[in-house]
Every structure is written in C-alpha cells, then in structure tokens.
Amino acid sequence: MPARRGPAPNPNSRRRNTNHALGEHELTPTSGEGRALPKALGITTGGAKRFWATWARSVQSQHWLETDWAELEITTRLVDAFFQGETRHAGEIRQRVGKWGATTEDRARLRMSFDQQAREEAAKAAQEASTSSMDEELFRMLSNAAGGESDA
Questions:
Q1: Which residues does residue 113 pair with via DSSP β-bridges, in sequence order?
Q2: What is the distance of C-alpha 86 from the center of its chain?
Q3: Sequence spans of domains, the chain
Q4: Beta-strand runs (E) in 21-146
Q5: 35-67 confidence digits (pLDDT tens)
Q6: How many of the other CB atoms lie within 10 Å of CB of 102?
C-alpha cells in the first residue's frame, strides 16, 4: 500500500472560505438586436462585421457598460485586421473575447450560466447564420495565401 502524505482528511470537514458574493451569474436574454456597428470604425471585412453582430446580440452584451462597448469596438478593429491577413492579432483577440465568456470554458471560469431559453435562442441563431459568406471569405483568404506563396 502506498504511503500517504500528511494526515488523513477529516470526514466531517467542510469548506469555510467560500465567497457567496462570487456566485454563479445567471444570464437571461431579452429581445433585442444589440447595437449597430458604428460606421466610424471603418470595418471592411465580412468576418469582422459578423464578429460585431454576434457579440452585439449576445446575452453577455445585455449587461455591458459603455466601457465594454468601447472594448468591443477596439476588438472588432483587431478582428478586421486579422481577416485582412494580420494574424499576429489572434492572441490578443482570444484574450479579449475570453474575458467576455466566448467559450464554454471561459463561461465556466467566469461562473456564467444561461437559462434554457438562452440555449435554445443560441442554437437557433447558429442555424440562421449564413455559412456561405463565411465559406466564400475563407476561400478568398486561402486563395490569396496560396497565390502569394507561388509568387515568392
């Protein structure tokens, strides 16, 4: 039998340092289109426009302050540059959207949860999203990358 490190745990122990103020955040969607993409940002790529629309309609954005919207504007500019081929922005984009709860792991870390209605609306929105424009843009990006390699 392997040796134990330290004393055996107390069978009646309980965690006393839980912080109830940092409990789970239940997000419930309300109807709304979100904010429109500001024309002053000068966004040119379809990918960045989809990025803005996705986040502007997200459940998380319904609780945002002006500073959060300003961060979305900055991040959308980075996404626009990314879709124009400046891939060095990928890490910064991932860090920023992670703070908003972009992935399941991010939401678990932030203790976010959505009610069943939010899950159903998210699934419906995902089905309605047009993949054809995304496919066309990806094809264009890959074609440009392949064309640039053959010229070099």
A1: 26
A2: 19
A3: 43-127
A4: 25-27, 112-114
A5: 899 999 999 999 999 999 999 998 888 888 999
A6: 17
